[in-house]
Specification:
Number of helices: 28
Shape: globular
Structural class: mainly alpha
Helix content: 55-70%
Strand content: under 5%
Distance between the termini: 55 Å
Largest sheet: 3 strands, mixed
Strand order of the largest sheet: 4-6-5
């Protein structure tokens, strides 16, 4: 029983312890009145929907309650699970779900407290102590999912004659996915209890180190969020200066990040070998309930498309900049003549909600709640978790969003992305604690779809032809970052984990692997040099959720195909089917979810459909 992960939406195994330049025709769209909200300062979340404060008596009360419930559950069901009839097993699962909900509430609260200010020692101590307690208490009930996997298929089928147990069929299906990889009860208990002093401790070290890093710039000490934001400045000198200071600081800290990477890769290898996973990526695929072959097909399709996607686009961009090659700090530079619009918070939220509302008034109504209630933390602040995430927390509370909003167009798209996660999580919450979580490959669907809706809305409002072209180029860059870059990240992880099985890697070797995959994916038009070789060190997904990154490419290609179906009006009542897909949470697999839209991710041409949309956008830019 682990706390629910936020940014990466990490879902632990049950056996262990978050464009066309013309407006597209929206045949299925419904008109909705623009949603207008009063102007306010950048919002900060209020976590009192969990507890009044981290030292409130309610926190101690729930820890005591959790401990008691775990002990009672063990005394009641340990050694008896296999012999329970269907109705009694369903009752036991209901009690188990309640315990998971309570643990998730405590864990989510601690994680959000920590994310708000990772440099605060009180927050860090509370977060660590919460993990420690949950791990100790939950070890009492670890036997339950292990015992479910010991039930024979024949006996489980007989138990499923119970209507009460049938309700939990999707969860039982997912638990039993891990059956071939399950270890003895003793080993599972050891892995579960050592998690907090092993992988979790190294992850915390990474987080706290990144939070404390400061990047010297014009007599200021910038946070990582502020420094990386400068790399998309309109001023070339600013971009270069920011890139050089980032590289210098990352290089100085590379030995520590190398140690963390080596340790976690070795830790994963040991457990993978015990469990019998075929490849380093296989455990991630199993947790996503998707076949190795499907992910391999996605990766191969994207890598084959490097020349006609990223290589071609960056060559075009270099030409627009009148350069033979772009410096790496110019890869995400605004195009010449581009004046990136600055958005006030109220403008950004109205834009995003309008975009959602033109597609679905219901979706916009759900999204509006995040703004009218203190569910979003938007300001950049010292110690705050960089980047952005949507934490699903638990169904009895609600999701929370974290962004670092600085008013740029990309910040608006990030807001649209995380709001997509948020409304998805709200809709899926009705499935309950055990069945609301969506596999990572599908968890990005609503977020990327929300980005697509918002981009189309921005494009619809823009009348200047040159500006529309720049908007299209920015969208292509976002898609390349989501598809090409994330598959390159995944390839980097494959090489790191592969070589770690033979020997510990030096900082220089990891950096060389990084430079190799970056050169392959970005192409000859991007000049990679100097301390860029250390830029692998700051990416949290490598630490928190190995091989998570391909989910972004999966989601983007899937949404490209999904949006094409919507725009072409090929599916009747698309909006209703889309909301039903989000509401399903983790109860359905990808084949079942995509079937109403006539899509199938197992077909060879599925991925190419999504990639061809990106290629088509580049064709328009190359006119």
């Amino acid at each position: 029983m682990a706390t629910r992960k936020s940014a990466a939406r990490k879902k632990p195994a049950p056996v262990k312890k978050a464009k066309a330049t013309k407006p597209v025709k929206k045949t299925a769209a419904k008109k909705a009145p623009a949603i207008r909200l009063p102007v306010i300062k950048l919002p900060e979340w209020d976590l009192r929907d969990f507890y009044p404060a981290l030292d409130a008596p309610e926190v101690d009360r729930d820890f005591s309650k959790l401990k008691q419930l775990c002990e009672q559950f063990k005394n009641k069901y340990h050694g008896k699970v296999e012999s329970l009839d269907g109705d009694t097993l369903a009752k036991a699962i209901g009690e188990y779900e309640y315990i998971q909900e309570l643990a998730g509430k405590l864990g989510s609260y601690a994680q959000l407290i920590f994310a708000k200010n990772m440099s605060n020692p009180v927050n860090a101590q509370f977060y660590q102590n919460t993990q420690d307690k949950i791990t100790v208490f939950s070890s009492q009930i670890l036997f339950f999912s292990l015992a479910i996997n010991k039930i024979s298929d024949r006996d489980m089928e007989a138990k499923m004659s119970s209507p009460a147990l049938k309700y939990y069929a999707p969860w039982i299906r997912d638990v039993r996915t891990y059956k071939p990889y399950q270890l003895s009860d003793e080993l599972e208990k050891i892995l579960h209890e050592k998690y907090v002093s092993g992988r979790a401790a190294w992850s915390r070290l990474f987080d706290e180190t990144m939070a404390k890093l400061r990047f010297p710039y014009d007599k200021k000490q910038l946070t990582s969020a502020e420094a990386f934001d400068l790399m998309s400045s309109k001023d070339a000198a600013t971009r270069k200066k920011a890139a050089l200071t980032i590289g210098k600081v990352l290089a100085e800290n590379a030995p520590l990040f190398t140690l963390i990477t080596n340790t976690l890769a070795k830790d994963k290898e040991i457990e993978d070998n015990w469990r019998g996973f075929k490849q380093p990526i296989s455990s991630r695929n199993v947790s996503n309930y998707i076949e190795d072959e499907v992910v391999d097909a996605l990766s191969a399709a994207v890598r084959r498309s490097y020349p006609k996607l990223s290589h071609r686009y960056y060559a075009l961009k270099a030409k627009w900049f009148k350069q033979k090659q772009l410096a790496y700090w110019d890869r995400n530079a605004p195009l010449p003549g581009d004046k990136d619009k600055q958005y006030e918070w109220n403008d950004a939220r109205e834009l995003v909600l309008d975009a959602y509302g033109h597609f679905s008034p219901e979706l916009a109504s759900l999204g509006k709640e995040f703004f009218t209630k203190p569910w979003i933390d938007a300001p950049v602040s010292a110690g705050k978790s960089p980047g952005a995430f949507a934490h699903p927390t638990v169904p009895s509370v609600h999701p929370y969003l974290l962004v670092n909003f600085q008013g740029k167009s990309r910040d608006v798209m990030t807001l649209a992305h995380e709001l997509g996660h948020g409304v998805h999580q709200v809709l899926a919450a009705k499935q309950g604690t055990l069945m609301s979580d969506t596999p990572l490959t599908l968890a990005e669907t609503a977020s990327v779809f929300g980005e697509q809706l918002t981009f189309r809305e921005i494009l619809r409002r823009e009348t200047d032809k040159a500006r529309r072209k720049r908007l299209l180029a920015a969208k292509v860059e976002d898609m390349l970052n989501t598809v090409v870059r994330q598959i390159a990240f995944c390839e980097f992880e494959k090489r790191v984990h592969g070589e770690r099985r033979q020997s510990e890697l030096t900082s220089e070797r990891i950096s060389q692997l990084w430079m190799d995959v970056q050169a392959e994916s970005l192409g000859p038009a991007i000049k990679l040099e100097g301390d860029y070789k250390y830029f692998w060190t700051y990416i949290p997904h490598f630490i928190h959720s190995p091989f998570y990154v391909y989910a972004y490419a999966f989601g983007d290609c899937l949404v490209n195909s999904l949006y094409a179906v919507y725009a072409q009006g090929k599916v009747a009542d698309f909006e209703t089917k889309y909301l039903e897909m989000l509401t399903a949470g983790g109860t359905l697999r990808h084949k079942e979810l995509l079937k109403p839209f006539g899509l199938d991710a197992t077909k060879p041409d599925f991925w190419q459909q999504g990639l061809d949309i990106i290629a088509g956008f580049i064709d328009e830019l190359d006119d």
